[in-house]
């Protein structure tokens, strides 16, 4: 029987497969592939865990941002209320100041009027005394005139004080 090259190639192939099976190459390949699959699965699990942690951190930061925005709104509202209160207080103080100034001005005007009335009365009294003196001088003699003048001055002084 003559064997051609195809037969020897076939026998070589069988020996090669037997050698591979004897050396447990498929098991090593399967083991290597399993290890690689396990490593990839571990990386996927780690990536999934990192993604969950990132989402958790994102949620925390969003919550903190919302809280900070609410706090900022509260601070702004408080500042607006305080500004309104200060404005109202300043308005009231200004109105009180103007009212006090008006009262003081009215009081000074009234005092000036009273002083003017006293001055006019004083001038009128002086004029009346002078007129009375002139009349008495014309109608009466020197001694009577002096005694009347003294009595009149005494009466005017007592009425003015």
UniProtKB/TrEMBL annotation:
- Assembly with partners or alone: F-type ATPases have 2 components, F(1) - the catalytic core - and F(0) - the membrane proton channel. F(1) has five subunits: alpha(3), beta(3), gamma(1), delta(1), epsilon(1). F(0) has three main subunits: a(1), b(2) and c(10-14). The alpha and beta chains form an alternating ring which encloses part of the gamma chain. F(1) is attached to F(0) by a central stalk formed by the gamma and epsilon chains, while a peripheral stalk is formed by the delta and b chains.
Transmembrane region positions?
6-23
| PANTHER family per the UniProt record, alphabetical | ATP SYNTHASE SUBUNIT B, ATP SYNTHASE SUBUNIT B', CHLOROPLASTIC
Organism equals: Rhizobium paknamense
Q: Which residues form a coiled coil?
A: 30-96
Q: Which locations, inside or outside the cell, does it occupy? A: Cell inner membrane; Cell membrane
Keywords (A to Z) from UniProt: ATP synthesis, Cell membrane, CF(0), Coiled coil, Hydrogen ion transport, Ion transport, Membrane, Transmembrane, Transmembrane helix, Transport
Q: Mind telling me what this protein is named?
A: ATP synthase subunit b
The record ties this protein, via InterPro entries, to: ATP_synth_b/b'su_bac/chlpt, ATP_synthase_B_chain
Q: Which domain of life is it from?
A: Bacteria
Gene name in the database record: atpF
High-level lineage: Bacteria, Pseudomonadati, Pseudomonadota, Alphaproteobacteria, Hyphomicrobiales
By sequence similarity, the record places it as follows: Belongs to the ATPase B chain family.
Pfam families listed in its UniProt record = ATP-synt_B (PF00430)
- Topology in the lipid bilayer: Single-pass membrane protein
Query: What HAMAP family is this protein classified in?
Result: ATP_synth_b_bprime
Provide the function of this protein: F(1)F(0) ATP synthase produces ATP from ADP in the presence of a proton or sodium gradient. F-type ATPases consist of two structural domains, F(1) containing the extramembraneous catalytic core and F(0) containing the membrane proton channel, linked together by a central stalk and a peripheral stalk. During catalysis, ATP synthesis in the catalytic domain of F(1) is coupled via a rotary mechanism of the central stalk subunits to proton translocation.
């Amino acid at each position: 029987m003559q064997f051609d090259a195809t037969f020897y190639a076939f026998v070589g192939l069988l020996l090669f497969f037997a050698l591979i099976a004897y050396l447990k190459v498929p098991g090593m390949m399967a083991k290597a592939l399993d290890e690689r699959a396990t490593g990839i699965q571990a990386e996927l699990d780690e990536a999934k865990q990192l993604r969950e942690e990132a989402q958790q951190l994102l949620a925390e930061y969003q919550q903190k941002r919302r809280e900070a925005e609410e706090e900022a709104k509260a601070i702004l509202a408080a500042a607006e209320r305080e500004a309104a209160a200060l404005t109202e207080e300043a308005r009231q103080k200004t109105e009180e100041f103007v009212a006090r100034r008006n009262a003081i001005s009215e009081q000074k005007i009234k005092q000036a009027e009273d002083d003017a009335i006293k001055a006019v009365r004083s001038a009128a009294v002086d004029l009346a005394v002078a007129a009375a003196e002139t009349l008495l001088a014309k109608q009466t003699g020197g001694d009577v005139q002096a005694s009347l003048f003294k009595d009149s001055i005494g009466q005017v002084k007592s009425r003015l004080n």
